[in-house]
Amino acid sequence: MDLKSYLSEKKQLIEAFLESYYSAPFPPKILRESMVYSLSAGGKRVRPILCLAAYEACGGRVEDAVPQASAIELIHTYSLIHDDLPAMDNDDLRRGKPTNHKVFGEGIAVLAGDGLLTDAFCLFADRRFRRPVIADSAIAQCVCELAHAAGSQGMVGGQAQDLLSENSEPDPITLIFIHEHKTAALISVSVRIGAILAGADEEKLERLTRYGENIGLAFQVIDDILDVEGETEVIGKPKGSDEKKKKLTYPRLYGIEESRRKAKELIDASVSALSVFDGKAEPLRAVARYLYERRN
Amino acid sequence: MDLKSYLSEKKQLIEAFLESYYSAPFPPKILRESMVYSLSAGGKRVRPILCLAAYEACGGRVEDAVPQASAIELIHTYSLIHDDLPAMDNDDLRRGKPTNHKVFGEGIAVLAGDGLLTDAFCLFADRRFRRPVIADSAIAQCVCELAHAAGSQGMVGGQAQDLLSENSEPDPITLIFIHEHKTAALISVSVRIGAILAGADEEKLERLTRYGENIGLAFQVIDDILDVEGETEVIGKPKGSDEKKKKLTYPRLYGIEESRRKAKELIDASVSALSVFDGKAEPLRAVARYLYERRN
Q1: Which among A109, A147, A156 has the least Cβ separation from residue B111?
Q2: The domain that contains A167 carries what CATH number?
């Protein structure tokens, strides 16, 4: 299959939806500007695309799940804004552009994050954006799972542990906890949400969960490798910026070679989990391989 | 009716639920500690109590809606933590105790707020805490309405406008915008949620919406009056702290007498809206009168 076209089509669907979702102005002007600034800062839309691909693998029509998939991107974007704050990672650059608080100030950046996070749940459950094919029971279950993956025992917990581990000696258990919670949880739930919205049976849901967990972990390992190897122009932040902050990373703990091997193993496991699926799961398989090969 | 007993009984139900909800430890320890610190800092639980009272007024059994009502308190608590941050109102005291970031540091305070906000939606939709009498469709509608009231076009928007209006000359339109969004929206939706969860008909829902809107605005006007008149020991923050920051407030714009008259008018309108309800709405009426008379 032509993955490039697939990714760019899905990306367009999501970005068109997000743009229309925030097209009507509301006061105060600067809050919306700040939210839209980070939302349109050039993300790859990996999470919503995985959601749509899982929805499709379970027999759904991609167009029907675009609003809910886009809601996941709001949550991802909020997490980047808050992670970059001076009280957190204190980053000035994100995807090659000044971070939200550098442009709009800290107070508005906190609120832009809060707004995106909260709006995500409104959008996810909003009847005006929901195709009749998606049941109320699926919405309720997904809201709970999405919030669990993003909340104190998911992404927020991972970020808290990451913050507490700065400048400390690396240890493998903490590293895996951070990766599983900070990154893998939201990626993995994105896949599950696609399946649940499509009404997948237990076996398919279980397989896609395994796919998501493996790909979620792989994603962060690869991110860590890219931070060491990548160039500033390509990854959008200074090369080795994690190392400067003595962040716990895979390459720091195990070296580059072992990290690459680990990433490959996780990607292979994610593809194996899809063995019961037919050709409709081809995009999920291709995305897994693409993540391993990506350079930014 | 004995409002004091009513309020203390409902408060106990909510606090017992919240305590059990966060009773199991999860890492990192300090994140949970920080969330529980603010959650148990002595709130009056006005929003969840209003939700339960509306649920009851529409014929529901209070016990059945405790988890969903408690979720609203998580959102309220997150908003206090973020509002107090140095980049926002920069408050050191809240309800007579050091604010969250004073105890746990700014980074953890941001994350504690993020965690509470996100967990609220997980709790609200969680099947494990849901009585069968509450339908999936009601959950989906409430999630959307709750997130809308709390999000960028609700509470977050109000706080953003409040932040942008510091040190500026007061003007009535901005003041009403801030009150309606920052405070009234969440109070008002709390009442609506009680009604929707109970399956209220259109007329009752419309009446309770009017009740909630009026009481929500009254609540903030009275808060402003208390800030001028109250004593530090009673309201838990230094008297006149809004004035020091040149915050836009009702008393600053209209004086104390006119503010009192306005609060009375709003409370009366909220009680009038309940005319179609029977004795089951007595707690809602009593709460309205109590809010007017409160001294902290």
Answers
A1: A156
A2: 1.10.600.10
Cβ-defined contact of B31 to A127 (cutoff 8 Å) = no
pLDDT means per 10 residues, chain A with 296 residues, are 95 98 96 98 95 98 98 98 97 95 98 98 97 96 98 98 89 92 97 98 97 95 86 55 72 92 96 97 96 76
Residue B97 is inside which H or E element, if any? strand B97-98
Q: Is residue A98 within a helix (H) or strand (E), and if so which, with residue range?
A: strand A97-98
Token pair 């949620």 is found at B193
The CA distance from B212 to B218, in Å, is 10
Q: Which residues pair with A93 in a beta bridge?
A: A98
Q: B137 is in which domain, residue-wise? A: 3-293
What total number of domains does chain A contain? 1
Residue of B83, B152, B166, B175 best to disrupt the A interface, most CBs of A under 10 A: B152
CB contact under 8 A, B27 and A141: no
How does pLDDT run across B11-21, given as a tens digit for each residue?
999 999 999 99
Which tens digits make up the pLDDT trace of B200-230?
999 999 999 999 999 999 999 998 999 888 6
**Among candidates B31, B82, B135 on the partner chain, residue whose Cβ is nearest the Cβ of A114:** B82
Q: What is the complex's ipTM, to 2 decimals? A: 0.95
The SS3 call for residue B93 is strand
A30 reaches B (C-beta below 8 A): yes
